[in-house]
Design goal:
The protein has five helices and no strands. The protein has about 150 residues and is mainly α. The protein has a domain of about 90 residues. The relative contact order is 0.06. The C terminus is likely disordered.
């Protein structure tokens, strides 16, 4: 048995064990091809936007078909009003369920009256704008520059 110093033993031990980053050094670097950006034409953008709007419109029509008193309405109802009425209808259903669970079957509020109120304000706004345009006037503006249509 030969005697070796402590430093030699450390070196001997290190020789058998790979260095920490040794495995990285052995790998060959990968050469990746750069991905080229797909050029989107104006036609493709327009088609995408048309498809997006079509999806939104179909969704709003589906929502409209689920709201009572709006399903077979002959007049056009704006998407904004449909969304507001959907929110009101969800509140109505939530309150109705709460009262039903509590044993009170009374309606929390008259949803049909809510629909009529929202639609009436829409018709008033349209008729007032039409009257202003017929008189040659423009929409009234407040100090902030926003229109005074109550929305």
């Amino acid at each position: 048995m030969s005697r070796t110093s402590g430093a030699e033993q450390k070196n001997k031990f290190r020789r058998g064990r790979p260095k920490k980053n040794d495995h990285r050094e052995k790998k060959k670097p990968r050469i990746r091809a750069r991905k080229t950006k797909k050029v989107i034409t104006n036609e493709e953008r327009c088609k995408h936007e048309r498809d997006r709007l079509k999806e939104i419109t179909m969704g709003v029509e589906e929502l409209k078909s689920r709201i009572p008193y709006l399903q077979h309405r002959p007049k056009r109802v704006s998407q904004e009003k449909i969304l507001k009425l959907a929110i009101s209808y969800i509140r109505y259903l939530r309150e109705f369920l709460r009262q039903q669970i509590a044993g009170l079957i009374e309606e929390p509020f008259d949803f049909e009256a809510e629909v009529k109120r929202v639609l009436k304000t829409e018709e008033k706004n349209k008729s007032s704008k039409k009257n202003q345009q017929d008189e040659g006037g423009e929409d009234t503006k407040d100090n902030n520059g926003s229109s005074d249509d109550g929305v």
